[in-house]
Amino acid sequence: MELEELSVTEKAAMLSGGSEWDSRGNDRAGIPSFVMSDGPHGVRRQLGEGDHLGLGASKPATCFPTAGTVANSWDPALAEEMGEALGREAHDLDVNVLLGPGLNIKRNPLCGRNFEYYSEDPIVAGRMAAGLIRGIQSNGVSACPKHFAVNSQELRRQASNSVIDERTMREIYLTGFEIAVREAAPMTIMTSYNEINGVYAHENKHLLQDILRDEWGFDGMVVSDWGGSNSAVAAVKAGGSLEMPSPGLTSVRELVAAVKAGTLAEADLDARAREVAKIARTTRLEGVGRDDLLKGDIAAAHHDVARRVAEGSMVLLKNAPILPLKPGTRVAVIDDMAQTPRFQGSGSSKVNATREENILDAFKAQEAAAGTDSPSITVAGYAAGYDRQGAANQTLIDEAVALASREDVDVALAVVGLDERSESEGLDRSTMAIPQVQNDLITALTATGKPVVVVLVAGSPVELPWHDSVAAILYVGLSGQAGASATVRALTGEVNPSGHLAETWALRYDDCPSAGWYPAVGRDAIYREGPFVGYRYYETAGVPVRFPFGYGLSYSTFTYDAIALAADGSGVDVTVTNDSDVAGATVVQLYVTGPSRSAVSGRTAASGVLRPARELKGFAKVTLAAHETRTVRIAFDHYTFRHFAAAAGTSGTSGAGEWRVEAGDWTIAVGPDAEHLPLTATYTIALPKNGDAEAHADGTLFGMPIITPEAASFQSAADPALGHYLNGDVKHVTDAEMTALFGHEVIAPGKPAVFGVNDPISVWSDSRGFVARTIANTLAKRERTVREKTGAPDLNTLFILNMPPRAMSKMTQGMVDSAMVDAIVKIGNGRTFRGLGSLISSYFRNQSANKRTAKELNHE
User: Fold this and answer.
1) Do residues 328 and 286 both lie within one domain?
2) b or e along 610-639 (b: 16 or more beta carbons within 10 Å of the residue's beta carbon)?
3) b (16+ CB within 10 A) / e for 469-479
């Protein structure tokens, strides 16, 4: 039977989950159900029904480094190798759709989920994601890039509205997804929880149809984040294929009723059902099972892959030089994370690792492998150094200082960073600082006079008050289950660190462009900073940073010798030399500066398109032998010179506008990071002339029209109304300037006087009703108590606090329907008894309706 021959009810049933992780199939049409599983850096195949927050038990799988760490490799080929291993494990665990990678832009360093995302830059994010997707899908498994789109905070994540101008959205927050879709063709994509300019992502036609399908050519399935669907009917109209997890049969009835009423075209229903069926049929797998996987060599091979990825992603931030440690060096290993490793974040990405390593044991293993014939690095002793939960304990510091001060200790190795409470789905960080007890420890260790080498464990940037006093800093990120052996190999010189930072490290949090309004505590998260995110802000506004975007040291030294534009204008050639006696790798980075800034010597543009001082447009990781010289080609492409010219007055939901290229002299700069660009060249994009036979004679570049500076969109560098934006001084942007950037007035509402179905439970703390206030305050107190007691966030409670009542109808497998949600909202608004009465009566009506729908689906 063909899909179109199924009843409307049967087709509607295919558009929502059958359980926490399974789709609904249809036997009559030969469409099997399929399995989805979290897996940005490891397959989390849960046992039983499971949950979506990483709390339930899951089958063992390789835990690879997180995306925020892998991005520091700047190596899409390495990401693809990791993806191949991920996809193999997903295949063998009978997982059809692996939910990852995450490639949201790191708008602010405090986002609790930044460790799952690649970069503050869309070119890095897109190219790294494309590599991982290609690797995953080489196994017949669908990758699922997420969270589409403009998802930047965990607070109120299910009840937040991202207010953003069209150009910033297209250039910064969507370009990474565009690259991933165009270059890797993912079979599935996941929408985000939030609204974008007042329209939920899963029912945003501008995103899902106009951009994703019509412009980028995506022909796969769009799945909601778990509980992220708002209206099933609106989603199907807009291009949302599947809502997860199981909402029961309420959505089925809503879709059927809409088709009968003529408010939903059956053709739209058919299109979405075909998208779901395509995944079911394309990814149907015959897994070998976890037992076979562990009995063979695959588990060991994948552990080695995880180690190589960790090795390629570590960033040497400082070196006295003291690294690599010389044979015979006696090391005092200090700090709790050296013995009890932290190598991944908390939440839905948490993996039940097949193996675990720690730095202390890795040192000892290396020492044992060296034997007695040659000098090796020896561990002189170990001290915990600090309390893992952050409690002050002078005794632990004294023990560490005593160890470091011994005559048989040459170097103190301190392993410090963020603890388990700091980085998690559902919870944003409150500070860029690491726990104070760790700062106190490092201060005490440096006072001994012994050189201190810091191994820094964190998925996001942190403040480094002791930067100037330590001898070396090796940033290992969240490095996966093989991170400890990778770290020791890097410290001892078996591996030459080659990572470069994929995000800027500010000196202090207050320097960050969005620090004054992040996270948004109300409904609207207004992206006041526009395109000035990360290095685009720091480099334009001239704000000093601890480490610039793209920064990374090495045991090798490199010289960038020459730059030449390709004769056909297709790119640039750069000559790079390894001046040292040590083989190593560097990341050649290409940045462009548009005519509106290239034409002036200062920071104020005279005319043309408003844009940051420089933007990354290409990169290449290059491995060179000692004293080797090589010429590296970085090609220009569709993304190099474009800007999005939004029509004045658009809000990001209509999408009026087009991609254009600005004519004039562009500065091409190449170097090892965003601040150090020793090589520059001028590339001229000419306007066409009558009879002109040159490259731009047809008035286009990469298919986009070339415009004069005077033909810039309403976001013009000649517009004095943009004020502080012209110099990137976004911290002092006024409401009037923000209105000029957005092209329409932006109004941030206050607290709701009456709570609705899409206001989070947390705001019930302001309710006039005693019961509602008690529920919200009790949940908040419980979360704080659990976090303080266990050292880990209470993810279930956080999820409930951030959850709007609407989500209850999407995550209870049919126990709650929309009428019951309306009753719950009455309780939230203080009408407790009326709400309870409605809740009880609606419950019984829902149960009866579910039975009738189930009988219809079973053809009883």
Assistant:
1) no
2) bbbbbbbbbbbbbebeeeeeeebebebeeb
3) ebbbbbbbbbb
Q: Is residue 537 one of the residues assigned to a domain?
A: no
- Which residues have C-beta within 8 Å of that of residue 840, sequence separation ≥ 6? none
Q: The tokens of 836 are what?
A: 């309870």
How many domains does the chain fold into? 4
Name the average pLDDT for the chain. Answer: 91
In Å, how far from its chain's centre is CA 369? Answer: 39
Query: Which of the residues 92, 225, 410, 428 is marked catalytic?
Result: 225
Contact assessment for residue 469 and residue 499, using Cβ atoms and an 8 Å cutoff: no
Mean pLDDT of 304-311: 98
C-alpha to C-alpha distance for 779 and 803, rounded to whole angstroms: 12
CATH number of the domain residue 66 falls in? 3.20.20.300
116 and 175 inside one domain: yes
Mean pLDDT, rounded, for 525-550: 97
200: helix, strand or coil = strand
Answer yes or no: do 432 and 564 share one domain. no
Task: Out of 529-543, 576-590, 691-705, pick the least confident.
Answer: 691-705
Distances (CA, A) of 742 to 158, 590, 737: 24, 29, 9
Tell whether 115 and 258 lie within a shared domain.
Answer: yes
pLDDT band at 56 (very low <50, low <70, confident <90, very high): low
User: Is 22 a catalytic site residue?
Assistant: no
Domain boundary (232, 258, 291) is at 291
With a CB cutoff of 8 Å and minimum separation 6, the contacts of 623 are: 498, 583, 584, 585
How do residues 416-459 score in pLDDT, each as one tens digit?
999 887 888 888 999 999 999 999 999 999 999 999 999 999 99
Q: In the structure encoding, which two tokens stand for residue 348, read together?
A: 């839905």
As a three-state string, the secondary structure of 643-699 is EEEECCCCCCCCCCEEEEEECEEEEEEEECCCCCCCEEEEEEECCCCCCCCCCCCCC
Residues 841, 793 share a domain: yes
Give me the residue label for tokens 């909601």. 224
State the residue range of the domain holding 254: 3-291
- pLDDT score, position 368: 83
Quick check: 35 and 44 in contact, CB under 8 A? no
Residues 331 and 454 placed together within one structural domain of the fold: yes
Q: Are strands 472-475 and 315-319 parallel, antiparallel or unpaired?
A: antiparallel
Residue 34 lies in a domain: yes
Q: Do residue 282 and residue 319 come from a single domain?
A: no
**Where is pLDDT greater, at 426 or 32?**
32
